[in-house]
Amino acid sequence: MSSLATRPADRAVGRIGEHVASLDWQRLHEAIDERGFAVTEPVLGKAECRTLAGLYDDASLFRSRIVMARHSFGRGEYQYFSYPLPEWVAEMRVAFYAHLAPVANRWHAALNSGIRFPDEHRDFLNRCHDAGQTQPTPLLLRYGVGDYNCLHQDLYGEHVFPLQVAILLSEPGADFTGGEFVLTEQRPRMQSRPEVVGLTQGAAVVFAVNERPVAGKRGVYRVRMRHGVSQVKSGHRHVLGLIFHDAL
């Protein structure tokens, strides 16, 4: 078992969690509300990125492996971590949730949803687990030449946290080329709008899982968002995905 292993979401936040907490969350919240996503400064250093990417080959850390082509998801593969999560993964999941829960609650209020999210991630996971959503959803993705990820949403059950995080573990231009992170949004009675999101190694993109509220002339309406990855042209691309709800 990797030395990064720990129990899920029940430890004091460490150095990486403190780095997440120190981000300019006012700017990030404004960007998330305005565009449905925001890009952070690097939250992981090069060595930390290499360590996390290197976990991919340790099968003992994962509960399942998905080859995208078998399911028409694209090309490439990813693995879902099992509990206990690696220490840094658990740390970042707790730290990001604490700053995203207020946005999630504001969005649900704007959309007239009666669902509200607790301040602590542990309490939200208890809600998921009580509903049978007990499978951890943080994952590592690995892409090679020609690989890509079709536009999709990560839902997994009745209880869905409306934001998620992807952290680029590889260095663009050095480890891989191509492989851009892509978002689309579908506004009512309009064609889909694409967005290519530039990331540096160790940086995170926070983005909407499914729907977000947008103010219009006739009030607030729902904008549906999807995400994916364009084709990798060379090298290998590794990404850490942080999904805050667990799966059935």
UniProtKB/TrEMBL annotation:
Annotated InterPro entries: DUF2086 (IPR018655)
Name of this protein: 2OG-Fe(II) oxygenase
Species lineage: Bacteria, Pseudomonadati, Pseudomonadota, Alphaproteobacteria, Hyphomicrobiales
